Structure to design on (169 residues):
């Protein structure tokens, strides 16, 4: 491949992955065209994009950037999967695809600058809560004691209104 072509591809990678800080890398070797198209369409319907990359050019493009840790995963046939939202959601969708297509190999992922290696790493990432899920859990934990206290206060109020006395502890 000529140097101008390589530079064009590297430039396309820069544009395509600009601002991307999280991604999942897979190997699609062994999938036929129908299975690959089905997977791409399924991901695309959720706003997720899959890009088959030339490893050396991708490593060169990502060097020093937020995706540089993917260097170890970029060996052999590689596709980088990114989405508009959290990479946790991307990992979950990829894991759903892996359930139906056993030939997909999970090579790794990057989230918030941390690299998750291989199958186990991507599964771990997919088990993380998204930002919204995490915030909802925090709010629930904060409000939980308040609800318990309100239940005790309500019980005391009902007993006092019924004319009962409340023993001191």
């Amino acid at each position: 491949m000529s140097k101008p072509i390589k530079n064009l591809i590297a430039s396309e990678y820069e544009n395509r992955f600009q601002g991307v800080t999280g991604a999942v890398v897979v190997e699609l070797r062994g999938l036929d065209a129908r299975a690959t198209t089905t997977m791409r369409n399924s991901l695309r319907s959720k706003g997720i994009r899959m890009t088959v990359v030339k490893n050396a050019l991708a490593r060169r493009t990502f060097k020093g950037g937020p995706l540089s840790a993917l260097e170890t995963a970029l060996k052999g046939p590689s596709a980088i999967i990114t989405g508009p939202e959290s990479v946790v959601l991307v990992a979950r969708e990829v894991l759903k695809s892996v359930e139906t297509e056993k030939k997909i190999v999970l090579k790794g992922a990057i989230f918030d600058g941390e690299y998750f290696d291989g199958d186990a790493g991507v599964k771990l990432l997919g088990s993380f809560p998204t930002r919204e899920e995490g915030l909802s859990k925090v709010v629930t934990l904060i409000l939980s004691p308040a609800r318990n206290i309100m239940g005790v206060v309500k019980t005391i109020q009902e007993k006092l209104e019924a004319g009962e006395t409340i023993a001191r502890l």
About this structure: The chain has two domains: 3-128, 130-169. The mean pLDDT is 89.
